[in-house]
Design goal:
Elements: H1 2-11, H2 19-36, H3 39-59
Helix pairs in contact: 1-2, 2-3
């Protein structure tokens, strides 16, 4: 999970101001995958998180 979260963080390097958030998110996505044994659960959470970020940015 640590390696997976690290790779997730590296994939999001242009957003260096949120490295910790990306790492923790990667851990959550890996944990959800392990618990559900489905990549779709992690994809749904990732999409929801991104959608909320877009919504909050638009409202700001």
């Amino acid at each position: 999970m640590i390696v997976s979260a690290g790779i997730f963080t590296l994939a999001h390097l242009p957003t260096t101001n949120t490295l910790l958030v990306n790492f923790v998110s990667g851990l959550v996505f890996a944990w959800v995958y392990e618990r559900t044994n489905s990549i779709y659960s992690s994809m749904l959470i990732h999409g929801t998180f991104n959608g909320l970020a877009v919504l909050l940015t638009a409202l700001a």
